[in-house]
Design brief:
Helices cover 35% and strands 16% of the residues. The protein folds into two domains: 129 residues, D-Maltodextrin-Binding Protein, domain 2; 90 residues, no CATH class. It is elongated, with a radius of gyration of 23 Å. Strands 3-2-4-1-7 form a five-stranded mixed beta sheet. A two-stranded antiparallel sheet has the order 5-6. The chain has a two-stranded antiparallel ribbon with strand order 8-9. With 259 residues, the protein is an alpha/beta fold. The chain contains nine helices and nine strands.
Length: 259
């Protein structure tokens, strides 16, 4: 039996959203709200999760919240199995890059009519709101966003004569090339380590040059990576990869080894 289950966990950063799933077995009638969260919540903000559960149970008499903590590396495979078995969790935490496929497949409930009831919805981060929306409909609630941090050997840049961060990609490339030359005697030294098939990094170049992955035309997706702007971005990424002499091979992606 398939029917829509709408649920909200009031939790106040990889980017992450929580979404209500559409498929659920008859166990939902047992008044138990099953929520899949990543272990980040278990380790980082258990008090917040407990407070959210308590608030939900107090406002929904007779209901209990069952939190089931998952791991990032296999939660999608497990979720796919629950979809196939028509026994999904009621609410799931999903990374922003994983949302679109499930929204397009109709696996999440449309939450648009409830948007006004979500706390602070008028101040949602634009990027997270966009990753929770498909076809003009809202399928997820922004959960948290993390800051990206750059870690680098400031002493090596200073020794190469660079005391300030670069202001352009070309300047950054020149700095890396010089740092690489000054340390070429160090076995395995790489001024910048980026895989040739690190598509997350490559797409940054595509977007920076005005390109894109695909556009919707008459309700269908049409690939645009072969467009002039997209190819310009990919060529620039290739040139940057070669010029900086990354010690990663051209066939490695961004997860091997994990940064």
């Amino acid at each position: 039996m398939r029917y829509r289950v709408l649920a909200v966990v009031a939790a106040a950063v990889a980017l992450s959203v929580v979404a209500a799933t559409t498929a659920k077995s008859s166990k939902a009638a047992g008044n138990t709200l099953t929520v899949w969260l990543q272990v980040d919540a278990q380790n980082g903000w258990p008090d917040l999760v407990a407070a959210a559960n308590h608030a939900f149970e107090n406002s929904h008499n007779g209901w209990k919240v069952s939190i089931q903590y998952q791991q990032w590396n296999d939660h999608l495979q497990k979720f796919d199995a629950t979809i196939a078995g028509n026994d999904t969790p009621d609410v799931i935490e999903m990374g922003n890059t994983d949302m679109t496929a499930y929204m397009a497949a109709g696996e999440f409930a449309n939450l648009g009519q409830y948007k006004g009831s979500f706390d602070n919805s008028s101040n949602w981060l634009a990027g997270l709101k966009a990753s929770s929306t498909y076809g003009g409909k809202l399928y997820g609630v922004p959960y948290y966003a993390g800051s990206r941090v750059i870690t680098y050997r400031a002493d090596l840049f200073k020794k190469a004569g660079f005391k300030k961060p670069p202001k352009s990609l070309s300047q950054f490339q020149r700095q890396l090339v010089k740092v690489g030359k000054m340390n070429k005697h160090v076995k395995g030294f790489s001024p910048l380590y980026v895989g040739g098939e690190d598509w997350f990094t490559a797409l940054s170049y595509v977007f920076d040059y005005g390109g894109s992955i695909a556009h919707r035309v008459h309700g269908k997706w049409v690939g645009t990576l072969a467009s002039k702007k997209s190819l310009a971005g990919l060529k620039r990424f290739k040139a940057f990869f070669r010029a900086t002499q990354s010690r990663s091979t051209a066939t490695l992606d961004g997860s091997n080894p994990f940064p």
